[in-house]
Design a protein that fits this description.
Radius of gyration: 20 Å
Order of helices and strands: HEHEHEHHEEHEHEHEHEEHHEHHH
Structural class: alpha/beta
GO cellular component, one term: outer membrane-bounded periplasmic space
CATH superfamily of the largest domain: Bacterial extracellular solute-binding protein, family 7
Distance between the termini: 36 Å
Number of domains: 2
Oligomer: single chain
Bound molecules: D-xylonic acid
Mean pLDDT: 95
Shape: globular
CATH architecture of the largest domain: 3-Layer(aba) Sandwich
Strand content: 15-25%
Strand order of the largest sheet: 2-1-3-10-4
Keywords: Signal, Transport
Number of helices: 14
Largest sheet: 5 strands, mixed
Family: Belongs to the bacterial solute-binding protein 7 family.
Protein name: ABC transporter substrate-binding protein
Length: 344
């Protein structure tokens, strides 16, 4: 069961319970303890689905495989934890795809703004052979990439002013917003193109940077903004949905290689099942989190199609710069999957 701290209770909608754990009990191949570091809080879909992952492993190994989850970036941020997987000082992590482009460059396709217009399209892309091929491309880096799930649609927040247009980001007379970005060159390009002053920064440092005014704002899905209490230091939100970011569930290759093939198959199955559950939770959380943020005083600007179109037009130079570097063929493949999913 998912005990969430009472104080956090108010931050958790009545979410769907995870699917019942079915599947055979695996053979006895010894005891395995997995240390898993994640970036988000215990109330996040990322944590709740990681707990489900742990429950599947524990139940189907009769307690021989246990997973200890360390949330809130307490073991480090996405970049640091991926390095810890490579050296084997951490067994699992769950970063966004964006900082992982240093290992698999093709992942940067997910950072192209407005590429994935609907969640159905995003899920179709993550489940596609070309995306699964990106997970396979981690082989040999020291990281075993197990499954994609949903970080979600990124929304802009800031402490300076309401934003409903690219001009509001650039602040024609008062200067551009300073925006923290993930450590990813396409995100830097997006906010530079919009006239902001982007600053790459680890997620774990972001709250205090906003509290001290080092940055005006950041961009993350509503559920992350809520569960990380960003509304305490951010007065304005804008429903830009400018990028859909996946999470990638990862294991150290050293941990993976030490496990019996039957345990490896169980870990792979559990990763896929918990990733599917995470996408369901993240979907349920999204609108509810935005309402909670408004109740907690955040002034959220909803953008109409025309205002979104103005942002899409303003960031076109990002495609001009990055399409050749990411690969026109890959982008066309992804756009083909998007169109197919929209026609279903
Ligand atoms: C959490 C991060 C976070 C990401 C970011 O580990 O860095 O802004 O969106 O969710 O992966």
């Amino acid at each position: 069961t998912f005990g969430v701290a009472l104080s956090a209770q108010a931050q958790t909608p009545d979410l769907s319970e995870p699917p019942a754990i079915d599947g055979d009990v695996v053979g006895d191949h010894g005891s395995v303890t997995i240390r898993m570091g994640i970036g988000l809080a215990e109330t996040s879909p990322q944590y709740l689905s990681s707990q489900y992952f742990a429950d599947i492993l524990e139940e189907r190994s009769e307690g021989r495989i246990t997973v200890n989850i360390f949330p809130n970036s307490q073991l480090g941020d996405d970049v640091q934890m991926m390095e810890m997987l490579q050296t084997g000082t951490l067994d699992m992590s769950y970063p966004s795809s964006s900082p992982a482009t240093t290992y698999v460059e093709e992942l940067a396709v997910f950072d192209l703004p407005f590429l994935l217009p609907t969640r159905d399209a995003a899920v179709a892309v993550m489940n596609s052979d070309v995306a699964q091929g990106m997970l396979d491309a981690f082989d040999g880096t020291g990281i075993k990439a197990l499954a994609f799930s949903e970080n979600g649609y990124r929304q802009l927040s800031n402490s300076a002013r309401a934003v409903e247009s690219p001009e509001d980001v650039a602040g024609m007379d008062v200067g551009g917003l300073t925006i923290r970005t993930m450590e990813n060159p396409v995100h830097l390009s997006i906010w530079q193109t919009l006239g902001a002053n982007p600053t790459p920064m680890a997620f774990g440092e972001l709250f205090s940077a906003m509290e001290q005014g080092v940055v005006d704002g950041q961009e993350n899905p509503w559920s992350t903004i809520l569960t990380s209490n960003f509304h305490e230091v951010q007065d304005y939100g804008s429903e830009t949905r400018h990028v859909y970011t996946p999470f990638i569930m990862m294991m150290s290759e050293r941990t993976w290689d030490r496990m019996d093939p039957e345990y490896q198959e169980l870990v792979q199955d559990a990763a896929r099942q918990s990733a599917a559950y995470e996408i369901q939770l993240s979907t349920e959380y999204d609108d509810w989190a935005r309402e909670q943020l408004e109740e907690r005083g955040m002034q959220i600007t909803r953008l109409d199609d025309e205002q979104i179109a103005a942002f899409q037009e303003a960031v076109q130079p990002v495609y001009d710069e990055w399409a050749p570097r990411i690969g026109e063929d890959l982008i066309e493949q992804i756009q083909g999957i998007v169109e197919e999913s929209m026609n279903d």
